[in-house]
Amino acid sequence: QAFFCLLLCVPWGSSCPPSCQCTERAGAKAVLCSSQHLEEIPKDIPRDAVFLKLDANSITRIPSNAFRHLSHLEELDLSRNAIEKIDRAAFKGVAAGLRTIDLSSNRIRSIPKEALLALNAKLRLANNPWHCECALQEVLWEAQLDPDSVQDITCHTAPRQEYVGKPLLQVLDAGVNFCSVRQRTTDVAMFITMFGWFTMVIVYVICYVRHNREDTCKHVEYLKALPSAQGHAE
Under CATH, what is the fold of the domain 21-176? Predict the structure, then answer.
């Protein structure tokens, strides 16, 4: 055990980010960058990293292709940061090998489902200020959530006040479907738009007919006046 602990503390390679510690865990490369006041994901993470801990920092965003060069990555810990935005291609290039992604205890209100499409990893999404809507519901349908943390995905905001503060899973189990609400809203918006266009067409036709009728009446009056005008001339 003492030898194993010593092995964990031995740095490997010169490409380790300055604020991180690079070690080996049973032959697998681990990059430990916990509690280093990082505001963004380091650019020089070794390509053969298998475990990457970036927890307890001040990272606010996961940009596109942030981990694309880490083809061996299996475990990614981004918990206890200040993450608010996750780009659609945030996990592009590492999706196949990832087993776990910890995004708990951040400031995430929503996450694009495109970022999770190719993921087979278990996700930890607990303790974020989630906005419960169709997009989040679709994420739950698409993603593989860690069963131990799914109950801690609660609605910080929601279309209806009665859902606020409740676990999202509980709200969905009660029969709520945020996506059907959005569909109804979209249908109503389309109906209003179509009604508006239809009304404009009717108004245009009425104005056109009235304008032509007025022109026709003026022309008829002009024609009626022609013989009398010629008679006076004779």
Answer: 3.80.10
